[in-house]
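Hypothesis: this fold can be encoded by more than one sequence.
Test: take the C-alpha cells below, design a sequence, compare later.
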C-alpha cells in the first residue's frame, strides 16, 4: 500500500510561485493516476490537476489552467504541482491522491482515488 506525503506549502505573496510535492513511500507511483486537490477554508475539496496512469495525460481544473503545472519525476516516486501567479483565492490545504483504477475521464473525480496524503497548507497573502 502506497503512502503519500505532501510538502512544500507555505506563505507566499500574491503573484508569487510555489511548488508542492507529493512523495510516495511503500511503493512507487508507477501505474497510478495522481491528482492534486485543494480545500479552501470552509469549502468543499476541489480538483486542481491530475496526471494519468500512463504519465502522459494531464488534466487541469479551471482555476489552475494557465497557471499551474503538474509533473512526475522519472523514478515515479514523486509528483509535483508548480503554481505560478498565485492569488489569495488559491489559499487552501493542498492534497495529493493516487488511484490505480482512475481512467482519463474520471481524473477530476476525488471519489475515484484510493490513497490520500495529509495535506500541505498554502497561504497566499494579498
Amino acid at each position: 500500500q502506497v503512502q503519500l506525503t505532501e510538502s512544500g506549502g507555505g506563505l507566499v505573496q500574491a503573484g508569487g510561485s510555489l511548488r508542492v510535492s507529493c512523495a510516495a513511500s511503500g511503493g512507487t507511483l508507477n501505474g497510478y493516476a495522481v491528482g492534486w486537490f485543494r480545500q479552501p477554508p470552509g469549502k468543499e475539496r476541489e480538483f486542481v490537476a491530475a496526471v494519468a496512469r500512463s504519465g502522459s495525460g494531464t488534466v487541469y481544473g479551471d482555476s489552475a489552467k494557465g497557471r499551474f503545472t503538474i509533473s512526475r519525476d522519472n523514478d515515479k516516486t514523486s509528483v509535483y504541482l508548480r503554481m505560478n501567479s498565485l492569488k489569495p483565492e488559491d489559499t487552501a490545504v493542498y492534497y495529493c491522491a493516487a488511484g490505480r483504477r482512475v481512467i482519463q475521464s474520471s481524473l477530476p473525480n476525488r471519489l475515484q482515488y484510493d490513497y490520500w496524503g495529509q495535506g500541505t497548507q498554502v497561504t497566499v497573502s494579498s
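Residues 16 and 85 are 5 Å apart (CA to CA). The mean pLDDT is 95.
Hypothesis status: open.
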